[in-house]
């Protein structure tokens, strides 16, 4: 086995004892076996069948790294890369093929096997229940637009808690719930490709209701040592300047893209400014009696934070057409900061201090809730060119990316933020929504031309030393 020794210097950035080192994945992106093992279709299987040309190189979710069959080998590689924890998601349409009916025993067996294998390797399973993968049968009745789907989801969540809660202690209701709202109902990069602000608001609201109902089920079960959380992609919103118009623009972007989920999940209530804004423009969602109490009583114990890039905005430069359909961009323009550092492959700004700013905000404004970095990572195209003669991809840029972010996480810990871990996106190169295999993110490379052959990258071995030393 190859090992990469970190320099023999003293550990400068030491993390608290028991820090969670690991990585994150999602069912649709790694499992494969899309039509196997009794799985029902989800929106990704369906959309790919309808419009394969919307996916990079025409590759769909049926061609992934095949974790469904290769989980043992993969878990062994997790061990080899120093993981003490690992996040995966359960596929709702694998567990309950039509979303609301019979439980699929083959799925129960599969997830039991994965959980048991992780525990046998001393890797703590972190389980997420929904990662963009609405069962097709549920989408056909309206997806999150239909309130009945929130009940089907809560039932599915309860079933998972009951079946796996004896061994899984960290649970998450959703990953990045704003993304299906943006992708599916505003900007056309997820099925059902609707562009409609009113419907987007309803979808976002019902996602919060579904979340709160799942949390309620969890709390009823009183799982020993169990924690329930949500995973949010928090994009700190930076104004171009301190001019009041820029500040207002950035405040509104923050309300839409961060606080629309962060506040109800952690504080149990929506920000009044967001309610006022939607009301002023006539876009409040339909609500039901008792919703306010439901949200208030079902806040999370644990917050997962995904951080990739900041959002920079400025006041609108041209008066928006008041008759155009409302979109969030009515309230701000994007701002390109001169001299910013970019990941050219993904087109995202790299701003390491953003991770610290989020954490400090969580400490100061969200009761210093227990949290962890649940995703952070760097997607790079064409990594094969960095493969050396021994067959290892030398991804030094990824090591630097992780290290620079970890320094800011460490700083936040020094200042008292309750951060418990760091998970990279992602464990192995995976299929990524419409980008398919364009950008690679993993500690482990997956060679699609060689039957999915896995090789650990330099970053994977580096991470092992970090995890073992609990610092660097
Ligand atoms: C997050 C998602 C992941 C993953 C990651 C990288 O938003 O939770 O599923 O895909 O982003 O983004 P992408 O794959 O689009 O490059």
UniProtKB/TrEMBL annotation:
Keyword Hydrolase assigned to the entry: answer is yes
User: At the top level of its lineage, which domain of life is listed?
Assistant: Bacteria
Protein's name according to its UniProt entry? Glycoside hydrolase family 1 protein
Q: GO MF terms on file?
A: beta-glucosidase activity
Which GO CC annotations does the UniProt entry carry? cytosol
Q: Which organism is it from?
A: Paenactinomyces guangxiensis
**PANTHER family assigned to the protein according to its UniProt record, in alphabetical order:** 6-PHOSPHO-BETA-GLUCOSIDASE GMUD, GLYCOSYL HYDROLASE
A Pfam family that the UniProt record links to this protein? Glyco_hydro_1
Q: Which family does it belong to?
A: Belongs to the glycosyl hydrolase 1 family.
- What's an example GO BP annotation here? carbohydrate catabolic process
Q: Where is the active site?
A: 375 (nucleophile)
Q: Which keywords belong to this entry?
A: Glycosidase, Hydrolase
